Amino acid sequence: MAQLKYKIATIGSHSGLQIFKGAHDEGFKTIAICRKGSERPYKMFNAADEIISIDSYKDFPKIQNELIKNNAIVIPHGSFVTYMGYEKVEKLKVLYYGNKKILKWESDRHLERQWLKNAGLKVPMLFAKPKDIDGLVIVKFMGAEGGKGYFLAKNEKDFNRKIKPYKLRKYVIQEYIIGVPLFIHYFYSSLTNEIEIMGCDIRYESNVDSLGRISARDQIVLPKIDPSYVIVGNIPVVVRESFLPRLIEMGEKVVEVSKKLAPPGLFGPFCLETILTPEEEIFVFEISARIVAGTNPFIEGSPYTWLKYNKPMSTGRRIALEIKNAIKMNQLKRVLG
Ligand code: AMP
């Protein structure tokens, strides 16, 4: 087993359990890099063959040499980019799965938008200044705090009132699309040039997803009840089958454009974050160029991966399989960034 020479490593958080399980299923040993105090799940679920504890994710570069000595291949996930920043990730010397150069394009909301538009996808309108607001908008902050503090506004006056507590934070003002938020998980193999749909999820966010449990009459009398979008978990979704051809095409276009933006382009797992309207329009408000936590309900595989593989195939396992195939073909470099 050629893959035994390498170990799969990632930060113990986000989709770590899935990545480690997938690595074990494909015959790799695993290393979890955990923030002190967060080691327990990686022991409890037999996920990590080794654990390296660090005080903060920012210290990751300090333990690189240990990983290099172990022939570890690092798998990036959400916690990586969010807590380390793409500039630090770009400088890593350890073997790294994926194209690092694409991270800049997903980390900057303006570059990301350009990418999606070049791929011919519909994106929500952006408002340059609060005085331009002419309908319902969502105001989003940049940075690592997720959807905390995001707010809705209907005009400039409403915006000015709600932005007060966040004066120093960078934000974007985006058209609010009313519809169903749907997160589509893809995998693109640069070894076979094939795109796969791995699954779909909807997120469960606090408090926006619990507001529907309070009647409008009670909401009105509550002193302050702004929605927030702090993610709590992910729920699997199987989409209407007639949407699938469009979803497949969307993924293909994003990959095609990425090849020009940051050669050799996006490969491995990625996710389009969309909203489907009653008119069946699909707006894409974000792209994640790596595994997303929405794949976590599918450790046993999704209906789509079951159709394709006829055995449990999570996104974490698909990554390990791709690395294993690359090793077998003597082309590991093609999946490293
Ligand atoms: P984000 O931080 O961009 O992933 O957004 C967090 C959440 O806000 C999403 O999961 C959606 O529920 C919601 N959201 C983001 N952008 C929009 C939009 N343009 N219209 C409606 N809802 C949105």
In short:
With 337 residues, this protein is α/β, with parallel strands linked by helices. Helix content is 30%, strand content 26%.
Q: What is the tally of beta strands?
A: 14
Main beta-sheet annotation: 5 strands, parallel
Task: State mean pLDDT (0 to 100 scale).
Answer: 94
Share of helix among residues? Answer: 25-40%
CATH architecture of the largest domain: 2-Layer Sandwich
| CATH fold type of the largest domain | D-amino Acid Aminotransferase, Chain A, domain 1
Structural class: alpha/beta
CATH homologous superfamily name of the largest domain? ATP-grasp fold, B domain
Ligands in the model, by name, code or SMILES, are: adenosine monophosphate
What is the helix/strand order?
A: EHEHEHEHHEHHEEEHEEEHEHEEHH
Number of helices: 12
What is the CATH first-level class name of the largest domain? Alpha Beta
User: Which strand order does the major sheet show?
Assistant: 3-2-1-4-5
* Rg for CA atoms: 21 Å
Instruction: Assess the beta-strand content as a share of residues.
Output: 25-35%
What does this structure look like?
This protein is of the alpha/beta class and 337 residues long. Strands 3-2-1-4-5 form a five-stranded parallel β-sheet. Strands 12-11-10-13-14 form a five-stranded antiparallel β-sheet. It has a four-stranded antiparallel β-sheet with strand order 6-9-7-8, with helices on one face. The chain has twelve helices and 14 strands. The chain folds into three domains: 96 residues, Rossmann fold, CATH 3.40.50; 146 residues, 2-Layer Sandwich (D-amino Acid Aminotransferase, Chain A, domain 1), CATH 3.30.470; 50 residues, Dna Ligase, domain 1 (2-Layer Sandwich). α1 packs across α12. It binds adenosine monophosphate. Adenosine monophosphate (AMP) binds next to β7, β9, β11, β13 and β14.
